[in-house]
């Protein structure tokens, strides 16, 4: 007996057209895709004309375990992921202790088996304790199953440390995933440096704090042959560097967040730390550069940088509150509404940035719907319109500047490895 999804539509990958298809799942695989499939002997779910897409993949998620379980746990973070239509997340190592050893990776993977609600992969740290000094045992981390290396949350300050990390990563065939931030330029900034920060009298983080590291690491990737992946790109010059690197055949990929595609520093009044994130919301010029780069393929994928913090932490003054937004539970409808419904990008293109592209870049399961592939599936109701209401979140974090926004195109069913993980 299989699980049969009847009466739904798939997106034709070539034409972007919606085509009527039944989809049969057996165990953890897609068994069959056809115009009609005989329901006899199967458990049926009537999809009622909704859209069937591959389960979403988010390569930048802070699950906060171990050490910060008061912000998020693997149980709550992966439940939030399933509600947002995600089948797979890759979690960040800036936990306490840092995920910088085989044992810590194993701990996260064991916990995910026990309490997870989607597939969980982890990055291992580049340096021990994310202190930027001593390289981790990257070989051991690979054996433990990491999908890449990052010191996310902080930049690796020493170019020579990054060079050695890239040499190792190139040998191991895994990506170096960068949080691009030069601390000597970022200083104690709390928002983008520019007209708005000056008007508000708040210390700024210049775009160069990001672009200088992106440029440096592209050159090191060229030198070492490592695959460089740029996290949460937000600065127009950094985007231009990635475009140039790709044109030169340097192995670089990049992700952008929903907030850097939709928001700018002009919307910040300095009173609400739910608008504080790193990298900071930048200018309209930067935002447009990110959007154009997403459209022309310079930016490969969308990642939420889901970074939960407590209400108390985010109630602090703008200068002292922690950086970060949650994002898993509404990323798709948010972008569907603002990018697809407004005609800026096609539905097929948006889905690709949530699925096929991250799967391909990181070699993750899922990402495409085909017979024999993993049964990782999301069903979207493109006409359903809801308000983003933090009180309904499964995440412990409520910190989002998108609160109260009405958006369309919500996930109504998520299936991971053939198991229903969310049903509206
Ligand atoms: N993005 C953020 O503003 N914060 C992240 C760290 C990070 O992704 O850099 C966090 O861990 O809270
Ligand atoms: Zn980061």
From TrEMBL:
Domain of life the protein comes from: Bacteria
EC number: 3.5.2.3
Catalytic function, reaction form: (S)-dihydroorotate + H2O = N-carbamoyl-L-aspartate + H(+)
Cellular component annotations (GO), alphabetically ordered: cytoplasm
Active site: 305
Pathway involvement of the protein, from the record: Pyrimidine metabolism; UMP biosynthesis via de novo pathway; (S)-dihydroorotate from bicarbonate: step 3/3
The protein's name in its UniProt record: Dihydroorotase
